[in-house]
Design brief:
By secondary structure, the protein is of the alpha+beta class. Helix content is 25%, strand content 26%. The mean pLDDT is 96. The structure holds tetrahydrodeoxyuridine (THU).
Length: 139
């Protein structure tokens, strides 16, 4: 099956949707929720958290990754990101690299707009020719 046709896991979608509604974004008014399925089967969420000192705001994916590592998990098997609007918001460049640290090339990243339309890509499609931890193994 073409990965673009793969649907998000319903439990992960529900978790990302709930996190999306909890976003703290009084400046951009653009809510983002992320949910990560880890190798152990856990579901870990994050949302964007903005700040009056604008550059200190953090992305939903970054929050989810921090929570995942703090929970003792380091391997991602599926990711769902829910964003406001009619167009699925794909992870920003920085978050693509953050996800790449813990997700293999074939991991599916589902970008879901609040009104429904979804874009699904593999990690390698989202961040081609990427740099990752294995480059540091034998230097
Ligand atoms: N945002 C995320 O949470 N994840 C992304 O990958 C893109 C952008 C947030 C950051 C900011 O709070 C708002 O969306 C607008 O950029």
């Amino acid at each position: 099956m073409d990965v673009t046709e793969a649907r998000p896991d319903p439990e992960l979608l529900a978790a990302a949707t709930a996190a999306h509604l909890r976003a703290y974004c009084p400046y951009s008014h653009y809510r983002v929720g992320a949910a990560i399925r880890t190798e152990s089967g856990a579901v870990i969420v994050g949302c964007n958290v903005e700040n009056a000192a604008y550059p200190l705001g953090s992305c939903a994916e970054a929050g989810a990754i921090a929570a995942m590592v703090a929970a003792g998990e380091r391997s991602i098997v599926e990711i769902v990101v829910v964003t406001d609007g009619d167009t699925p918001g794909t992870p920003c460049g920085g978050c693509r690299q953050r996800l790449r640290e813990f997700a293999g090339a074939g991991v599916l990243v589902h970008s879901v707009s609040a009104s429904g339309p979804t874009t699904t890509m593999t990690m390698a499609e989202l961040l081609p020719h990427s740099f990752g931890p294995e480059f540091l193994d034998d230097h």
